[in-house]
C-alpha cells in the first residue's frame, strides 16, 4: 500500500471516530438529562404517594354479630385486641363475652361483690335483690359503673391481662373488687349519675336524687408510709339542679375536676368539683332536650347529643374577665333520629354517635369533620363502646353484639385544619397553630401549616432584603465600573463564599452573631442613617478631588476608599450604640420595644437570619447577575457612550434593561435558595411557629420543620404524612417560582432583543 493511500485511509477513519464520539457524547448527555427528569418525577410521585392517604376518609364495616346473653346491657367495655367485651346488664351481672363466638368467659355479680364503705376488702356482703337504674362507662377509664335502686353508685374496674403462650397471645379478663359509694342515705333510687376512680385509691360519684337535687360524694384514701395503713374519708356535697327540666345524663372528667350534665329542657350544666361544688353554670343548647353526653380524650371537650339529632362540641373558654364559660364551639350535621349514645376514642378526638333509628355517625372534633354516617342493623341499641385502639366499636341491642370495624388513620387532617384557623381546646378563639406533640397522650395535635408558610416567607423576605440590593448592585459595579484587574480577583472571591457550608453559617449565626446583634441592635439601627451619609460624603469628597489626581488611579480604585469608609462608619456606629440607646430608647432597647410597640425581642430572630442567610444568598445572585451584565454586547455600551451618554446613564438605560432577564433569573434563583434553606434557619432562629412579621422574633420554616420533626414522626402516621405534604408544598413552590422566572425571562429577552 502506497503512503498516499494510507494517508487517505487515516483521514477517512478520523472523521468516523469523531462522528462516533459525538454520537456517544450526545447519547450520554441525553441519557443524563432524561435520568434527571425521571429522578425528579420519581421524587414527586413518591411524595404524592405518601401524601395521598391524608385525602382519604374513614372506612367503616360490619362484622358478623354474636349473641349477647342476659337482659339489656347498659355499658360495654372492650379490650384493645377486640377479643373480649365486658357487658353490664340491668340485672347487675358483668358478663365478659368472647367476641369470636359469643361465649361468656367470666361473670361477676356487681351487687353482691360491691365493697361497702368501711368493709374489709376480703368480705363480701350477701347479694341484695335491687336492680340497677342506670349504667355507664366512666370517661377515659377502664371500668363499668352503675346506679342502684337503693341509692348507691358501684364502680367495677376491668382489666384485660395479656400473656403469651409461645407465639399465641392470650387475653385474660379480670374484674377487680367493685367500689360502692352511698349517694342517697335514704336508700331511694338514683337517676342520672357519673363516677370516676382515682389513681390514688380515691373515688368520686355524683347522682341526681329522687327529689331532683344533685348529690356528690368524694372518697379519699391516704396511706401511712410507715405502717401501710390506709385511712379513708368521705365528703358529701349537695347542689341544686336549676331550671324546669330533669337531668338526662351526667358525665365526669378523668381528673374528677368537672361535672357536666344535660337536661330535658335543652340546658347544659357545668359544676366545678375543685373545692366545694357550688351551683352549676347553665348554658342553653336550644329547645331540644339533651339526651346524651360524653367527654373526648383529655376530658376537656364535651360532646352533646339532643333529641332532634343535633351533635355539638363544647369546652371551657376564657372570658375577658378571666373567668371561664362553657361554650358551644362546633356543630355537626344532625342525625335523623334522637341521639342515644356517644362513645369517644381513646386515641384522638374522634367519637361515635348512635341515634334511636339506627343511624350512626363517626366524627372528629378538632378537624370539624364528619368521617362517616350510615345504618347499623341493631334494633334498640342500648350501649356503645369504642375500642382502645380506635379500630373498632361495639353496639349492644336486641340480644346481640354488633362489631363495627373502623379504619380511620388520619382523621385530624382537613384543608381547614391544615391551612385555616382552628379553635383548639383551651384557646380563646380560632387560630393558626403548629404543635405536633406533647408530653401527654391526651394532647390535641395542632398541624396548621400556615405558620410554617408564613415563617418561610418571612425568612425569605428578610434575607432577600439584604441579598438583592448588595448582590445586584455589586454585580453592576463589578461588571461596569470596576477595572478588570480588580474584577479578576473580586469575582472568584465572592463566588467562593457560595461554597461555605450552611451549617457553618447557621452555627456562627446562632452562637456568635445572635448575642452580638442583641447587644448592638441600637448600633445596627444607627447604621441605617450613618452609613448612607458616610458613603455620600466620601463620594462627594472623591468627586471634589482634582481630575488629574483621580486620573492617576485605575477605574474602581475608589472602591478601596469606600471599604475603609464603611469600616470606619460601622466602628463609629458601634461606639455610639450605648449613647444612642440611652438617648432614644431610654437605655433599654428591648424594654422600649415592648412598651412602645408590644413586641418582644428574641435573641435568635429574623434580623439574625436575614444577615446570615443573606450572606449565603449574595454570592449566587452576584454571580448570575454579573454574568448577565457582562454578556451585554460591548457595541451597545460603546454606541451609548459615543452618543454622549455618561457611564451611569449607559448602565441604567442600556445595560440594565438588556441584562434584566439574567438579573431576574438571579433573583429567582436566590429566592429559591432562601426558600429551601434549612440549617441556617434551624440554628439561627428559635424555631417558634408564629404568625408575625416582627423582625425581632423567631419563626419556623417548612424546610426546618421537616428537619426537626421527621426523626420523631412515626412512619405512616399523620405527622409523617403531613411533613411530606410540607415537602410537596416546597416542591410546588419551587416549580412555580422557576416556571414564572422562565416565562418572565423569555418575555424580557423578547422585549430587549432588538437593542
Question: How would you concisely characterize the structure shown here?
Answer:
With 755 residues, the chain is of the alpha+beta class. The model is unreliable at 115-130 (pLDDT under 50).
Q: Can you put this structure into words, describing what you see?
A:
With about 750 residues, the protein is of the alpha+beta class. It folds into 3 domains: about 70-240, no CATH class; about 245-420, YVTN repeat-like/Quinoprotein amine dehydrogenase (Methylamine Dehydrogenase, Chain H), CATH 2.130.10.10; about 450-520 and about 585-750, MetI-like fold (Orthogonal Bundle), CATH 1.10.3720. The protein has 17 helices and 32 strands. The strands form 8 sheets. Strands 1, 2, 28, 29 and 30 form a 5-stranded antiparallel beta sheet that branches. Strands 7, 8, 9, 10 and 11 form a 5-stranded antiparallel beta sheet that branches. Strand 21 and strand 22 form a beta hairpin. Helix 5 packs across helix 12.
Amino acid at each position: 500500500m502506497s503512503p498516499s493511500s494510507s494517508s487517505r485511509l487515516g483521514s477517512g477513519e478520523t472523521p468516523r471516530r469523531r462522528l462516533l464520539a459525538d454520537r456517544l457524547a450526545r447519547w450520554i448527555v441525553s441519557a443524563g438529562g432524561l435520568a434527571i427528569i425521571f429522578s425528579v418525577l420519581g421524587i414527586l410521585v413518591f411524595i404524592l404517594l405518601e401524601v395521598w392517604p391524608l385525602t382519604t376518609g374513614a372506612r367503616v364495616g360490619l362484622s358478623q354479630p354474636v349473641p349477647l346473653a342476659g337482659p339489656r346491657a347498659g355499658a360495654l367495655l372492650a379490650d384493645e385486641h377486640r377479643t373480649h367485651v365486658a357487658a353490664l346488664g340491668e340485672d347487675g351481672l358483668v358478663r365478659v363475652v368472647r367476641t369470636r363466638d359469643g361465649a361468656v368467659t367470666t361473670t361477676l355479680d356487681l351487687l353482691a361483690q360491691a365493697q361497702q364503705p368501711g368493709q374489709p376488702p376480703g368480705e363480701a356482703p350477701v347479694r341484695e335483690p335491687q336492680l340497677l337504674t342506670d349504667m355507664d362507662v366512666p370517661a377515659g377509664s377502664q371500668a363499668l359503673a352503675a346506679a342502684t335502686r337503693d341509692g348507691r353508685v358501684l364502680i367495677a374496674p376491668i382489666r384485660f391481662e395479656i400473656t403469651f403462650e409461645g407465639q399465641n397471645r392470650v387475653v385474660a379478663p379480670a374484674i377487680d373488687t367493685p367500689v360502692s359509694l352511698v349517694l342517697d342515705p335514704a336508700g331511694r333510687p338514683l337517676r342520672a349519675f357519673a363516677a370516676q376512680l382515682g389513681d390514688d385509691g380515691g373515688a368520686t360519684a355524683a347522682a341526681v336524687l329522687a327529689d331532683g337535687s344533685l348529690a356528690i360524694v368524694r372518697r379519699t384514701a391516704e396511706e401511712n408510709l410507715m405502717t401501710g395503713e390506709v385511712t379513708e374519708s368521705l365528703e358529701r356535697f349537695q347542689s341544686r339542679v336549676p331550671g324546669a327540666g330533669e337531668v338526662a345524663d351526667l358525665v365526669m372528667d378523668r381528673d374528677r375536676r368537672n361535672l357536666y350534665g344535660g337536661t330535658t329542657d335543652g340546658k347544659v350544666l357545668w359544676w366545678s368539683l375543685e373545692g366545694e361544688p357550688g351551683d352549676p353554670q347553665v348554658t342553653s343548647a336550644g329547645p331540644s332536650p339533651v339526651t346524651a353526653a360524653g367527654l373526648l380524650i383529655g376530658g376537656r371537650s364535651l360532646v352533646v347529643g339532643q333529641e332532634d339529632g343535633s351533635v355539638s362540641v363544647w369546652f371551657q373558654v376564657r372570658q375577658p374577665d378571666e373567668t371561664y364559660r362553657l361554650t358551644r364551639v362546633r356543630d355537626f350535621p344532625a342525625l335523623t333520629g334522637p341521639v342515644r349514645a356517644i362513645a369517644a376514642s381513646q386515641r384522638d378526638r374522634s367519637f361515635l354517635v348512635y341515634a334511636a333509628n339506627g343511624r350512626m355517625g363517626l366524627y372528629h372534633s378538632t378537624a370539624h369533620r364528619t368521617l362517616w354516617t350510615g345504618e347499623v342493623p341493631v334494633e334498640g341499641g342500648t350501649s356503645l363502646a369504642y375500642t382502645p385502639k380506635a379500630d373498632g366499636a361495639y353496639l349492644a341491642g336486641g340480644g346481640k353484639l354488633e362489631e363495627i370495624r373502623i379504619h380511620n388513620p388520619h382523621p385530624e387532617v382537613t384543608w381547614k385544619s391544615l391551612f385555616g384557623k382552628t379553635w383548639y381546646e383551651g384557646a380563646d378563639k380560632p387560630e393558626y397553630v403548629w404543635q405536633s406533640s406533647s408530653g401527654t397522650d391526651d394532647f390535641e395535635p395542632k398541624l396548621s401549616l400556615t405558620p410554617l408558610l408564613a415563617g418561610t416567607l418571612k425568612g425569605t423576605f428578610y434575607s432577600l432584603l439584604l441579598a438583592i440590593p448588595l448582590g445586584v448592585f455589586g454585580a453592576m459595579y463589578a461588571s461596569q465600573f470596576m477595572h478588570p484587574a480588580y474584577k479578576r480577583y473580586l469575582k472568584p472571591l465572592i463566588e467562593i463564599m457560595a461554597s461555605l457550608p450552611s451549617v457553618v453559617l447557621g452555627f456562627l449565626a446562632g452562637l456568635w452573631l445572635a448575642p452580638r446583634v442583641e447587644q448592638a441592635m441600637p448600633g445596627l439601627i444607627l447604621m441605617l442613617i450613618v452609613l448612607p451619609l458616610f458613603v455620600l460624603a466620601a463620594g462627594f469628597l472623591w468627586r471634589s478631588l482634582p481630575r488629574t489626581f483621580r486620573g492617576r488611579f485605575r477605574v474602581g480604585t475608589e472602591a478601596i476608599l469606600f471599604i475603609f469608609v464603611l469600616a470606619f462608619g460601622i466602628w463609629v456606629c458601634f461606639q455610639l450604640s450605648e449613647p444612642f440607646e440611652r438617648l432614644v430608647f431610654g437605655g433599654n432597647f428591648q424594654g422600649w420595644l415592648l412598651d412602645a410597640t408590644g413586641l418582644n425581642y428574641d435573641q435568635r430572630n429574623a434580623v439574625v437570619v436575614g444577615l446570615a442567610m443573606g450572606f449565603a444568598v449574595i454570592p449566587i445572585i452576584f454571580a448570575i447577575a454579573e454574568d448577565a451584565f457582562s454578556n451585554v454586547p460591548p457595541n451597545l455600551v460603546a454606541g451609548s457612550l459615543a452618543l454622549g451618554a455618561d457611564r451611569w446613564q449607559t448602565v441604567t438605560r442600556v445595560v440594565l434593561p438588556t441584562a434584566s432577564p439574567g438579573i431576574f433569573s438571579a433573583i429567582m434563583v436566590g429566592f429559591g435558595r432562601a426558600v429551601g434553606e434549612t440549617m441556617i434557619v434551624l440554628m439561627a432562629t428559635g424555631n417558634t411557629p408564629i404568625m408575625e412579621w416582627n423582625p425581632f422574633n423567631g419563626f419556623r420554616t417548612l424546610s426546618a420543620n421537616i428537619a426537626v420533626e421527621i426523626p420523631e414522626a412515626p412512619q405512616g402516621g399523620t405527622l409523617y404524612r403531613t411533613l411530606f405534604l410540607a415537602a410537596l408544598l416546597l416542591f410546588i413552590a419551587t416549580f412555580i417560582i422557576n416556571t414564572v422566572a422562565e416565562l418572565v425571562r423569555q418575555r424580557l429577552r423578547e422585549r430587549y432583543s432588538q437593542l
